[in-house]
Structure formats: C-alpha cells, structure tokens
Amino acid sequence: MTRFFQKREGEMDTITTNPPERLQEQHLAMVPEKPTVVEEAFQNEQGEEEPSGFLERIQHRVPHLYYVTVQLILPLLILIGMAFFFGWLLARAEMKGEIEANDAALRNTFETFIEYMELRQKIWKATPEISTQCLEDHNVTLSDYALEQVQECAGLEAKDRFRNQSLDFFFTQNTPDGAMSFNWMTCDKLNLPGQDEAIDQEDVLEEAQKSGLNRESSHDVQFVLYVSAFYLDLEVLSYLGAGLNPEVDLYEDAAPFTEYVEKSTGGDACRVHVAGGAIFWFTIMTTIGYGNTAPVTPEGRALVITLGFLTIIGFLALNNTAATVIRVIVDDMFLRCNLNSFVHGPIACIFWLAMTIVWVLVLAVSIMAYKDNRLGGAEEANFPLGDAFWFSYVTTTTVGFGDFHLEHEEFQVGDMFFIPLLVLIGFNILGIFAEKLIELYNHYFPERNGFEAILEQRRRKANGTQVKTKVWV
Predict the structure, then answer these.
(1) What pLDDT does residue 313 have?
(2) Rounded to whole angstroms, how far apart are CA atoms 152 and 140?
(3) pLDDT of residue 426
(4) Contact at 8 Å (CB) between 205 and 223?
(5) Which terminus, N or C, of the chain has the lesser number of Cβ atoms within 10 Å?
(6) 346: number of CA atoms within 13 Å, CB side?
(7) CA–CA separation, 62 vs 42, rounded Å?
(8) CB 89 within 8 Å of CB 303
(9) How far apart are CA 42 and CA 39, in angstroms?
(10) Can you give the pTM of this predicted structure?
(11) What is the full DSSP assignment across 251-273?
(12) Dmax of the chain from CA atoms?
C-alpha cells in the first residue's frame, strides 16, 4: 500500500512539474479521434450487449444492409424526390411564360401568313381555270356535258388540294421551330371540338414526318401539336366572331386572322412537364447548370433563390453521407483481404482515381444508350464516344459547360432513376478520391504544432495571461 501511494505521489509530482502547455498537449494526445457514425458502427465487436430497439438490432446484426439502405440508397432517393417536387413547382411557375413565348413566335408567323394569304388568293382563284383549260384543249373523246362535269370536278379538287398543300408547306417552312421550346411543358394531346377521341403524339408522328420534319423526336411532335392547337383555337375564335356561320371560309379573307390571332394560344394541348422540371432542378441542386434554359418568371426565380439554395445544402450533406458509406464498405473489404495499402497511401489514391475514370466512362456509355433510345435513328442520336465522355466528365465534375445537355423535351419520369442516379454515384466516387488525396497530403505534410495552437500562443504572449482552451472529448 505504501508503495502504491509512493508511486502515485511520484506521478503527481511529475505532472505538477510540467508547465500548463505541456499538460494540454498531453491531454490532447490522450483524446482519440472520434470516428464517424458509420465507422463506429462497423467497428463494433460481437461481444457487445444486444440493443433493445428494433432499428438498433438491425444496425448491429446486419450493419452493411442497414447503412447501405439508410445512409446510401435512402439519401440518393431523397435527392431525386427533392428534384421531382421542387422541379414540378418550378415547371408549373415557368409554364405560363413558355406558353406566352411560343404564342408570340406563332403570332409573328401569322403576320407573315396574312401577307402570304393575300398572294395565295390570286393564285388559288386561277387554279380551276388552269386545270380545266388543259382538258378543253386536249379533249377528243368527251361530250360537251361530260367535259363540263369533269372540268368542274377537276377544278374544285385542284382548288382544295392547292389550299391544303400550300398551308402545310407554309407552316413547315415558316414556323419558327427553333424559337419554340418545351422545357417546362409537354404537349401530348389535342382535343377536337365535337369529337370524343383526342389526337395524341402517336397520331401526329406520321403526319409530322409527311410534313418534312427531319427527326423523330418528342420536340417535333409537340411542335406540330402546339401549332395545330394554336390554329384550331384561331379558327374557333374566328367562327364565333362570324356568328357561328359555317359558310364563312377563313381562306377567303385574312380579316378573321388579324382580329383573333392575339387571343389564340396553343397551350391547350400542353400540361406541366414534371420530368423536365425535375432534371432542371437536379442541375440546380448539384450546381451543374448546363445553361440550356433558365427561369424567366419572377415566381420561378424566387423558387430558385430560396428553395434552390436549401436543396444545394441538402445535396452536400446527403451526398457526403452516401460517400462515407461507400468508402467504409470498400475499406472494410480491403482490410479483410489484408490489402491495407488500398486503404491509405498512394495506392489508395490511384485506385479511387481509376474508379472515377471508369465511372465517367460508364456514364458516357449510358448517355449514348439513352440518346439512341430517345431519338432513334435521328441525327441527334449520333453521339460519339468522345463527345459522350466529355459530357460525362463535365457533368461529374459539375463544370457544366452547356455545349451538350439533356434535352428536356425527350426526358421522361423514369429517366430520373437512370442518368441522375449514375451521376450521384459518380459524385460519391469523386468525393472519396478527393478525401484519399487530402489524407495522403496530410501524411507527407503533417501538422506540426498546429495553426490554432500557434495563434493561441501568440494570444497568450500578447495578453500576458494564460488562455484556457476547451477540449471536446
């Protein structure tokens, strides 16, 4: 007992002779670095007491399944869910502005169309005379009565065909396709007056191809539906203005177009494009920002400023959690296989750099498959591997130059669980590589005295007093 107390006294003497700075350094050295929640769970020994809670029992019995589900899959799904909800709000706010812009482009076209109609009227009236004159000049078999009937039939047929074909030609050649967009809305159904069945995209696709469109894309089909809805609305307004007189022919006079064109719209065939809003909000949340479109309404910009900022913070937090789970699982696998060099050091950095490059390539191949599936044999579907790899790289690194982007018109709801999910996993892998690289740097350039400790010593000297630092255990 005497020896014990003597030993304790010796220890106390040693401690009291040390200066306060030395005491603090010893205390800091004795405090172990606190592991993360995920690392702490994976380091639990089997001999520990069984937790009482249901989730805690699952966490200790099957930690891999628990953390992969709760802190990897669930955060990724939450991010996609946030993109859907806030993207829908944004698309709903921006749809009105997009309809107004598209209608304005069509109104400019109809101003030119009115001038075109006046010139066409002169040719149209002369069409029956031209077509029937040939019959009269070259007839050698028909009687006078038969010739008169054939001339009347041919003249009316030629007149009607000229009218329809000239209109198709005009709208195909003069409607500003590039000036119209479908980022925030999708036009997939056109209800005709007096008919139960509506015209959908499948019905329009064949007619769109006949009109000279060069690609089989959702944009072209929506373009035709929007123009058709605008023209139908214009006809209805014109007939109502004419007192519901079915004898009024809109092709005979440009006045109805001039009077009612400002009231017409093609937005009746459209609805909110949920998938388009979701992919755009995904680019906001991840700060990629391709720049292919941007909110223009005050409501849309307010949403981006407020909720957009919050979702960026949420993305950083949830993405970091998911990356930690992936890193811990892979490190645990290497440690079990006695591959410690793949956990720390240069080899670990090289491994995660290689994984980043491989994943960028996987995303590039997926983008190529997506383009081919959405655009079929169209020219835009020809996406070379070099361009796809470039797009994948600027997406994974969140550079987002905007030279390539995902077309909102082609994007569907199910695609949010394909391309964006691959992009999120790419963010995780890139983050792990950055973490390993920082760890390697700190190993070769360790923190000697510590920046904070040096500043504390300077404060002591400046104040001439001892400054106590609170140590968090």
Answers:
(1) 95
(2) 18
(3) 96
(4) no
(5) N
(6) 1
(7) 10
(8) yes
(9) 5
(10) 0.74
(11) TT-SHHHHHHGGG--SGGGEEE-
(12) 146
**Which positions ≥6 away from 279 have C-beta within 8 Å?**
83, 87, 406, 408, 411, 415, 416, 420
For the cut 50, the answer to whether the pLDDT of residue 471 exceeds it is no
Identify the residue whose tokens are 């361009």: 387
Provide the H-helix boundaries in 337-384.
Answer: 346-375
CA-based nearest residue to 279, from 374, 361, 356, 355 = 374
Q: Token pair for residue 312?
A: 């960026």
More confident residue, 8 or 442: 442
User: Across the strands, what pairs with 186?
Assistant: 271
CA distance 426 to 222: 33
With bands split at pLDDT 50, 70 and 90, how would you rate the model's confidence at 456? confident
CA dihedral 254, 255, 256, 261 (to 10 degrees): 80
CA distance 368 to 321: 30
**3-class SS string, 146-194:** HHHHHHHHHHHHHHHHHHHHHHHHHHHHHCCHHHCCCCCEEECEECCCC
Neighbours of 393 (CB within 10 A): 17
Eight-class DSSP state of 236: H
Contact 222, 206 (CB under 8 A): no
Q: DSSP letter for 183, please.
A: S
The per-residue pLDDT for range 326-348, each reduced to its tens digit, is: 999 999 999 999 999 999 999 99
